[in-house]
Write a structure and sequence with these properties.
Blueprint (H helix, E strand, L loop, with lengths): L1 E5 L16 E5 L15 H12 L9 H9 L7
Parallel strand pairs: 1-2
Amino acid sequence: MVIATDGWAGYDNVSFVNNGVYQHEVIIHAEHFVNDINPEINTQAIEGTVDAVKMQIAISERHKPCIVLKLFGCFSVVL
């Protein structure tokens, strides 16, 4: 399974989730918006997912630890 993120430092340890079973792909907005090898990995999909998650988190809790846990909580995160 591939987890695609933008270049936010909060996602740096994604490749270690569940002992590294996920492939971590990064899209750097300043460089490109679509992955050259896999066009299904793109910033629109990433932003849409993050925005949907953020809407489920109280504004006062929208900081790195809470967002990362909310994003990856369904994957039984072990960082």
